[in-house]
Design brief:
Helix content is 62%, strand content 0%. The protein is an all-alpha fold and 190 residues long.
Length: 190
């Protein structure tokens, strides 16, 4: 990918894929090819931090889809870690709640509550939902979209500790914004 292509690209997933082929990302990727690994991801936070900020910023972009306080608090804790105000242990300990918020969409114990969230999101954030439906996501019902957003927040919060080579879930691609990626990550100098 040339610098011009980077600046014009509308697919953040392709941009991230390209990043992991360039230094210093490719060296970090090599360290984490095998799981479990012997390397501590925090030693590579200098390389990972721009992507971490990007993922968290993408969560802010879909804040209205994060209907549960646990998801939002998890992102806020991760942002606090990025700012140096919170220790990683606090982020990791709270992740159980964020994962639970996402999991509640799997086998909803309280469908009535989820139906309320759906109505609120559909009335207040219809532009987001319609955007994805216009981009070929029409088969995704609002409940499924809320579930995907909650899982994205869960993964983004714990990145890079859970996946030091980028988030690898195609369902998350819709939440990735190329403009934000360019804001946090410069075109790699090869």
């Amino acid at each position: 990918m040339t610098k011009d292509e980077w600046l014009k690209c509308k697919n953040a997933s392709l941009m991230i894929e390209f990043l992991w082929t360039q230094e210093p990302y490719s060296s970090v990727a090599k360290k984490f090819e095998e799981y479990p690994n012997s390397e501590d991801w925090i030693d590579y936070l200098g390389v990972e931090m721009p992507l971490y900020k990007f993922y968290l910023s993408c969560c802010r972009n879909i804040w209205s889809l994060l209907t549960q306080e646990e998801s939002r608090k998890g992102i806020e804790l991760a942002e606090g870690f990025v700012e140096g105000k919170i220790k990683w242990d606090s982020v990791g300990e709270y992740n159980w709640h964020v994962e639970g918020a996402a999991f509640c969409f799997e086998d909803p114990p309280d469908q009535e509550r989820i139906d309320i969230w759906i109505k609120v999101v559909e009335s207040n954030s219809s532009f987001i939902i319609n955007k994805w439906r216009n981009e070929g996501e029409e088969k995704t019902c609002t409940q499924e979209l809320l579930k995907q957003a909650a899982y994205f927040a869960d993964h983004a919060m714990m990145y890079p500790s859970i996946q030091p080579k980028g988030l690898r879930n195609d369902e998350f691609n819709k939440f990735l914004c190329p403009k934000l990626l360019r804001q946090y990550v410069n075109y790699p100098l090869v």
